[in-house]
Design goal:
Elements: H1 2-6, H2 10-56, H3 58-66, H4 74-79, E1 81-84, H5 89-94, H6 96-105, E2 110-113, H7 121-130, E3 134-140, H8 142-147, H9 149-159, E4 163-166, H10 177-196, E5 200-204, E6 212-213, E7 216-217, H11 218-225, E8 231-236, H12 238-241, H13 247-254, E9 258-263, E10 265-266, E11 283-284, H14 296-303, E12 307-310, H15 317-329
Parallel strand pairs: 1-2, 1-12, 2-3, 3-4, 4-5, 5-8, 8-9, 9-12
Antiparallel strand pairs: 6-7, 10-11
Helix pairs in contact: 7-9, 10-11, 13-14
C-alpha cells in the first residue's frame, strides 16, 4: 500500500490517508459494540435457560417445593421392604430354592429368616447370593437367644444380618410383672452380648405386653427398663392393633427404639385381647383390615425404622401377598 501512496500527488495522499484513518476508527467502534452486545447476552442467557427449565419441567419444581423431606418417599419405603420367611414357611420346607425364586419374582430381595429350614447359615447365604438377595434380620427363639447367644451371633453374621429378633416371651397363663422383669433382665444381657458381635437385638411385640400397668402398659414398662444401648424393638402392626394399641402413637412416643417393622393387617370385625393369639385366617392383605395406615409410614420413617417386612400367616398368603405389595407401592410417605 505504501509504494502506491508515494506515487500519488500530495493532496490525494493527504485525503486518502484521512479516509483510511476514518474507516479504521469506525471498524474499531463496530468491534467494541459487537463485543459489548455479546457480553450482555452472555450475562442474561443463563437466567433465561433456568426459567425455560422450570417451565418445561413443572413436576420437578413442584416436587422440590412440596416434599419438604425428599429422602422420605415411596422409593425409600419400597427399597426397605422385605419378607418374613414365616409367610412362606410351608413352601420353604418343601423346596427352599424354588421359594426364594418365587419371592424374587415378586420383586422382594430382602428376607428376615425365622428358620433355616434344615440348612446351615452358609448354605442359605450362598443361595441368597446366587439370586442377588439378602438377609437383614435373623429371628430366633427366646431360649436360643439367651442360652446360645454366640452360636446365634455367628449364624446371623454368616447370613449377613444386622439384627437378631425374638418374637415371643414364654409365660404360663397370664403375662405378669415377674415375666416382664425376667425378660428385661435377659434382653439386656442378650443385647449386650450381641452388640459385642456387631449386631442389634430387637424384641418383637406380640400383644400380651399391652395389658394395663401403672398408668401405662407392660410394653411401656419394658421400654423404660430395657437399655437402649442393647435392646431395640420390632413393631408388629397386627400385634399392636389386636390388643388395642395405637401404632402411630407408639412410633411417635418411642421413635428410634423401633428399628424394624412387621407390616401385617388384622381382619375387620375381629375383637382383640391380650392373649397374643388369633387364628391365622385373621391375617388379611394390607389395606383391607383394621390397621389405620394414615400417617403410619411417615411416623415410621421419622422414627428411623430400617426395614418393613411383610408377614402373612394366612393359608391364602399366595393370593394376599401380591395385593399387599401393590398396597405398599401406592404409599407415599413424606409427600403431602
Amino acid at each position: 500500500m505504501k509504494p502506491f501512496l508515494m506515487c500519488m500527488p500530495g493532496h490525494f495522499r493527504n485525503k486518502y490517508s484521512f479516509m483510511t484513518q476514518f474507516i479504521k476508527k469506525q471498524l474499531r467502534n463496530f468491534v467494541l459494540v459487537s463485543l459489548l452486545a455479546n457480553s450482555i447476552a452472555g450475562c442474561t442467557s443463563p437466567a433465561k435457560k433456568s426459567q425455560s427449565a422450570v417451565d418445561e419441567s413443572p413436576e420437578v419444581n413442584s416436587q422440590n417445593t412440596t416434599n419438604k423431606n425428599p429422602g422420605i418417599n415411596q422409593g425409600y419405603l419400597m427399597s426397605s421392604v422385605g419378607m418374613v420367611s414365616y409367610t412362606y414357611r410351608n413352601s420353604f420346607a418343601r423346596n427352599f430354592e424354588a421359594t426364594l425364586d418365587t419371592i424374587r419374582t415378586l420383586g422382594i430381595t430382602n428376607i428376615e429368616f425365622s428358620n433355616l429350614f434344615g440348612k446351615t447359615a452358609a448354605e442359605v447365604k450362598s443361595l441368597l447370593d446366587q439370586r442377588g438377595m439378602r438377609c437383614t434380620s435373623f429371628g430366633v427363639s427366646y431360649s436360643d437367644a439367651l442360652n446360645k447367644t454366640e452360636e446365634v451371633a455367628a449364624n446371623a453374621k454368616t447370613l449377613g444380618a444386622s439384627y437378631v429378633r425374638v418374637a415371643w416371651i414364654p409365660f404360663e397363663g397370664k403375662f405378669t410383672l415377674a415375666t416382664a422383669d425376667k425378660a428385661i433382665k435377659d434382653f439386656n444381657e442378650i443385647g449386650k452380648k450381641l452388640k459385642a458381635n456387631g449386631l442389634t437385638f430387637c424384641y418383637h411385640n406380640h400383644g400380651y405386653e399391652f395389658q394395663p400397668y401403672e398408668g401405662g402398659t407392660y410394653f411401656d414398662y419394658m421400654m423404660k427398663h430395657t437399655d437402649p444401648q442393647y435392646v431395640s424393638y420390632e413393631l408388629d402392626l397386627l400385634w399392636a392393633v389386636h390388643p388395642g394399641a395405637d401404632q402411630v402413637e407408639l412410633l411417635n412416643k418411642y421413635g428410634s427404639r423401633f428399628k424394624l417393622m412387621h407390616v401385617k393387617d388384622l381382619k375387620k370385625g375381629v375383637e382383640g385381647n391380650f392373649s397374643g393369639s388369633t387364628p391365622v385366617e385373621n391375617d388379611v392383605a394390607l389395606g383391607t383390615g383394621q390397621v389405620k395406615w394414615e400417617g403410619l409410614f411417615d411416623a415410621a420413617l421419622k422414627a428411623g425404622v430400617q426395614y418393613f417386612y411383610i408377614e402373612d400367616e394366612s393359608p391364602v398368603y399366595h393370593q394376599q401377598v401380591p395385593v399387599s405389595i401393590q398396597f405398599l407401592k401406592a404409599q407415599k410417605p413424606g409427600v403431602k
